[in-house]
Amino acid sequence: MIRKSISCALAGLLTVVPALAFFLMLLGYWTPGSEVVVLILIFCFAVGAVWLGIEVSEILWGER
Questions:
Q1: What would the mean pLDDT of 46-54 be, rounded to a whole number?
Q2: Which residue from 24, 45, 27, 43 is spatially nearest to 35, judged by alpha carbons?
Q3: 16-24: long-range contacts at Cβ-Cβ below 8 A with a sequence spacing of 24 or more?
Q4: How many CB atoms lie within 10 A of CB 4?
Q5: Model confidence pLDDT, tens digit, residues 5-35
Q6: What is the value of pTM for the model shown?
Q7: Alpha-carbon distance 5 to 8, whole Å?
Q8: How far, rounded to the nearest angstrom, does the alpha carbon of residue 16 sit from its chain's CA centroid?
């Protein structure tokens, strides 16, 4: 169960940190240095969301 907790925490961070960065960017508090930073944030958010979805589905419906 500790592996699930660590995995969910990491997936959550991969999802929340880019979302927070985008929110701060929309509010005008942060400006990315280049397009590469924005692409990395999009990639991290997508990977984190998929990973978190997989982990939550395994918790809810059990290991398959």
A1: 94
A2: 43
A3: 16/48, 17/44, 18/42, 18/44, 18/45, 18/48, 19/45
A4: 13
A5: 899 999 999 999 999 999 999 999 999 889 9
A6: 0.83
A7: 5
A8: 5
Which amino acid would we find at residue 17? V
Q: Give the tokens for residue 58.
A: 């395994």
Q: Which two tokens stand for residue 38?
A: 């924005």
Q: What is the DSSP letter of 28?
A: T
DSSP codes of every residue in 32-46: -SSHHHHHHHHHHHH
- Phi first, then psi: give them for residue 31, nearest 5 degrees: -120, 125
SS3 of residue 53 by DSSP:
helix
